[in-house]
Amino acid sequence: MNNSIKKSYLFFSKDGYTYDKSHNQTNNMQILGSGMGKNFNEAFKDFKKNQSYLLSFDYENVMAVKTVGKFITNIKLKGGK
Predict the structure, then answer these.
(1) CA 7, 1, 36 angle in degrees (round to 5)?
(2) From what superkingdom does this record's organism come (predicted)?
């Protein structure tokens, strides 16, 4: 594999929570953004540059996953496909 090809990473955190449609609080993961680079370090720099507003928030446990394909959308948690 050619190392000059940029890879995409998705950055997220377990810090935080949200509410469901019934206004019940639920812990979840926060998607913070994405970054592109020849390697993880370059992609993390890209992420921090493009989402610099996040530096004013208090996320401590940021994680990353390298994306390898297209996103699958419109998946239903209950019923259907």
Answers:
(1) 10
(2) Bacteria
Q: Among 18, 37, 36, which residue's Cα sits nearest to residue 27?
A: 18
* Residue in 38, 45, 35 with CA at minimum distance from that of residue 65: 35
**pLDDT tens digits for range 5-35:** 899 999 999 888 888 889 999 888 889 999 9
Q: Please report, as a single letter, which amino acid is at residue 34.
A: S
Helix (H, G, I), strand (E, B) or coil at 51: coil
CB 26 within 8 A of CB 17: yes
* Contacts with 79 (C-beta within 8 Å, 6 or more apart), sequence order: none
